[in-house]
């Protein structure tokens, strides 16, 4: 049990599966309790969390780590606030916050599926065309929700004069670009900029912030979306555990956390410089299937145009 995490607690959104579940598992093994906010738990999460039950009435003071699950739709600010209340009610302190919930621009939230209107009745989009103010779900989940949860965390820590650590889930998409998923790229570019912008909090307030930037990780973001099947060909997948290990480094390595972007590829990890950064290893980010999807998209736009 790592002494630096024993007895502490973390709040993780999107912790019901994938990368964030792997990180929750690692924290629990290190003695850190966890509050998970997600829409649902995968069978793997249910099995894991049964090993770390929290008993009513212990006030979170037990030396044994435990898990609290709070059903949360992260695009709802009231639900995010309720999640924060659940975490601070369950445990004496929240030391680590991971706004990890994300989507990979599925058809119902894709730039290429414009909101449904009278002139575009067949769209798969769930984004309302008459929303005022207008919004896109991919940006709501991947960028707006992490910013709001970061606000709640920083407010809590600064009011209590407490140190804390924010770990965001970025991507190599945060410094790359391609047409098939422009909202996803925009969300990760924005998230990286947000993390960079808050880097000065480390030395001024003891609040550390960083983001992991993995390449392609085999998660439900790919598996649950038939439109992404073409993109998976030839990808060098990164293991969940490798990303979780990098997230752990952002928590325990005090030299990091000043806006650190920590890249994780099949060929290794590196801290990405803020300026004049070398491109990521081309062999590790070669997504030939993604290129095929791009060509198919462009041909369709030539033939049919974008329906709005």
How would you explain this protein's 3D organization?
36% of the residues lie in helices and 15% in strands. It is an alpha/beta fold. The protein has one domain: 3-Layer(aba) Sandwich (Rossmann fold). An 8-stranded mixed β-sheet has the order 3-2-1-4-5-6-7-8, sandwiched between helices. Strand 2, helix 2 and strand 3 form a beta-alpha-beta unit. The longest helix is centred in the middle third of the chain and has 23 residues, at 137-159. The radius of gyration is 20 Å and the shape is globular. One of its GO terms (molecular function) is oxidoreductase activity, acting on the CH-OH group of donors, NAD or NADP as acceptor. InterPro entries: NAD(P)-bd_dom_sf (IPR036291), SDR_fam (IPR002347). This is 15-hydroxyprostaglandin dehydrogenase [NAD(+)].
Q: Give the assembly state of these chains.
A: single chain
As for the CATH topology, it is Rossmann fold
> What is the CATH C-level name?
Alpha Beta
Q: Measure the end-to-end span.
A: 55 Å
Low-pLDDT regions: none
**Overall domain count:** 1
Gross morphology:
globular
Order of helices and strands: EHEHEHEHEHHEHHEEH
Tell me the major beta sheet.
8 strands, mixed
Helix content: 25-40%
* Rounded Rg: 20 Å
Would you tell me the overall average pLDDT? 92
The number of distinct β-strands equals 8
Organism: Tolypocladium capitatum
Keywords: Oxidoreductase
Protein name: 15-hydroxyprostaglandin dehydrogenase [NAD(+)]
GO molecular function: oxidoreductase activity, acting on the CH-OH group of donors, NAD or NADP as acceptor
């Amino acid at each position: 049990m790592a002494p630096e995490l024993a007895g502490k607690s973390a709040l993780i959104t999107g912790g019901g599966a994938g990368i964030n579940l792997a990180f929750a598992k690692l924290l629990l093994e290190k003695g850190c309790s966890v509050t998970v906010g997600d829409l649902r738990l995968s069978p793997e999460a249910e099995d894991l969390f049964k090993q770390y039950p929290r008993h009513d009435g212990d006030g979170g003071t037990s030396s044994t780590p435990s898990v609290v699950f709070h059903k949360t739709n992260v695009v709802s600010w009231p639900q995010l606030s309720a999640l924060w209340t659940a975490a601070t009610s369950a445990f004496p302190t929240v030391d680590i916050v991971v706004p990890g919930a994300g989507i990979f621009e599925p058809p119902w939230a894709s730039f290429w599926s414009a909101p449904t209107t009278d002139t575009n009745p067949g769209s798969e989009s769930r984004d309302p065309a008459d929303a005022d103010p207008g919004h896109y779900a991919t940006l709501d989940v991947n960028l707006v929700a992490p910013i709001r949860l970061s606000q709640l965390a920083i407010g809590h820590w600064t009011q209590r004069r407490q140190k804390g650590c924010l770990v965001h889930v970025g991507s190599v998409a945060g410094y790359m670009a391609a047409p098939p998923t422009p909202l996803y790229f925009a969300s990760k570019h924005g998230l990286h900029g947000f993390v960079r912008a808050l880097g000065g909090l480390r030395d001024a307030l003891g609040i550390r912030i960083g983001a992991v930037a993995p390449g392609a990780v085999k998660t439900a973001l790919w598996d649950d979306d038939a439109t992404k099947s073409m993109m998976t060909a030839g990808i060098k997948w990164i293991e969940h555990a490798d990303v979780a290990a990098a997230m752990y480094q952002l928590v325990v390595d005090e030299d990091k956390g000043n806006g650190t972007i920590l890249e994780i590829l099949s060929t290794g990890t590196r801290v990405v410089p803020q300026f004049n950064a070398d491109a990521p290893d081309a062999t590790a980010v070669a997504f030939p299937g993604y290129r095929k999807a791009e060509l198919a998209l462009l041909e369709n736009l030539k033939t049919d145009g974008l329906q709005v």
